[in-house]
Design goal:
alpha+beta; 4-stranded antiparallel β-sheet; 4 strands
């Protein structure tokens, strides 16, 4: 079971919301290249609020993802397009339903 995850909340500056959306859409390509990332979802919750939820088979995979290209791109963009640093929290999944 993929019982380890990360939940990230990302708040864009209003004038950069479209740029943050594009960054997250483009990040799918990077997530697909990560063998240790089992599932990856990017979502929008409002005009300027975005998020990412992903799962991993083990702690090494989760740590590797945090040191990977998607996290680096977010941190690089933080000062310019985000209103605050991304809030990234580890989560332990209790139950999972997948197709």
């Amino acid at each position: 079971m993929n019982n380890l995850g990360l939940l990230a909340r990302i708040e864009a500056k209003p004038e950069y919301a479209d740029k943050v959306e594009a960054l997250l859409r483009d990040a799918l390509r990077l997530a697909e290249q990560e063998d240790h990332t089992v599932t990856w979802f990017a979502f929008r919750q409002g005009a300027t609020t975005f998020g990412v939820f992903d799962t991993f088979a083990d702690e090494d995979g989760r740590k590797g993802h945090l040191q990977g290209r998607i996290a680096a791109a977010l941190m690089d963009a933080a000062e310019t397009v985000l209103s605050e640093a991304p809030d990234i929290r580890p989560v332990d999944l209790l139950a999972v339903k997948l197709p």
